[in-house]
Amino acid sequence: MAGRFSSSPQKDKVLAALSELYKSIxxxxxxxxxxxxxxxxxQPVIIFSDHHKGCRDxxxxxxxxxxxxxxxLEYYNEKGFYYVNLGDSEELWENTLLGVIKHNKDxxxxxxxxxxxxxxxxxxxxxxxxxDNDPLSAVYLKSLFGEAIKIYSGVVFRIDLPxxxxxxxxxxxHQGDAQSDGNAFSKWFVSxxxxxxxxxxxxxxxxxxxxxxxxxxxxxxMYEWSAAQQNIVLVTGHTHQPVFNSLTHLERLYLKxxxxxxxxxxxxxxKITAEVPRxxxxxxxxxxxxxxxxxxxxxxxxxxxxxxxxxxIEIADGFIRxxxxxxxxxxxxxxxxEETSLKxxxxxxxxxxxxxxxxxxxPV
Length: 364
What we know:
Layout: H1 11-27, E1 35-37, E2 45-48, H2 66-78, E3 82-85, H3 97-103, H4 105-116, E4 120-123, H5 130-133, H6 137-145, E5 151-152, E6 154-161, E7 164-171, H7 184-200, H8 212-227, E8 232-236, H9 249-263, H10 266-282, E9 297-299, E10 310-316, E11 319-328, E12 331-341, H11 342-361
Parallel strand pairs: 1-6, 2-3, 3-4, 4-5, 7-8, 8-9
Antiparallel strand pairs: 2-10, 6-7, 10-11, 11-12
Helix pairs in contact: 1-8, 2-4, 9-10
């Protein structure tokens, strides 16, 4: 049973599910998700995922991160950001919804401020499939946010560029999972039977967040799908591992180390070399093509790291950024981990597409 409903992704199902969802959103906006045309210099966006809000007991991963999350929402609301919540916001495999609501009133109140401004989009993930399955979900949502809101499978932000466009396609990233992306009965079974049962029996949930092999597969399949598209950047969560420009932190460190060697920058070499072992303990997979990745896949990371740090993706001021909110002397502080301009990102994707087209047309 654990094997049947494990989180191991199936490549063909992952690719097909992502294609189907994207096509549904752009061809029939509003059913599975909205299509939003926007100007990032005028309407900034923040994307967070995987909070796993619980009941402040021993299994609540969110408790230590709450102060960072509240500070982040205060900051983004004051600056007029549009907030995309990518899913697994509530941990409803281990807790009842009423219990989560009781212990997270401040968090829901902060989120409500974005709802009031019509600047909030909530998606569902595999750990909060309740929102997609329960007939009373709309009632609970209205009581939480003061008005009826719809929970979507994804959202597409379309940025108009000279002679073309760039779609930023956001979804939780559990597409293709045996445990959470099947038919209606399968999703009902996982959210109401399998999730609570594995928690009660303490069966290893074998999710991407806790399993390096599955994390590798998820990131690889998500990248593979996004790299095959023309004008699409894919942003997901689910694995709890930040990815920026299709590179993990470890892969970016190796690129920076190569650059430091080329410049003979001994100080940088020493600093990066000291950090690599720590990052390898966190995640020891390096894509063989990491030097030539199409910058089409991003992952927000999560809002429940053990030290209370939360990470997310910002789209603002003409840039896309991987940001983290962490404690500095006990105070929640924002830091930019990585950033690139949207123009540079679009140019890189277009250049990569042209290069792949030439390669495909070249006789063997």
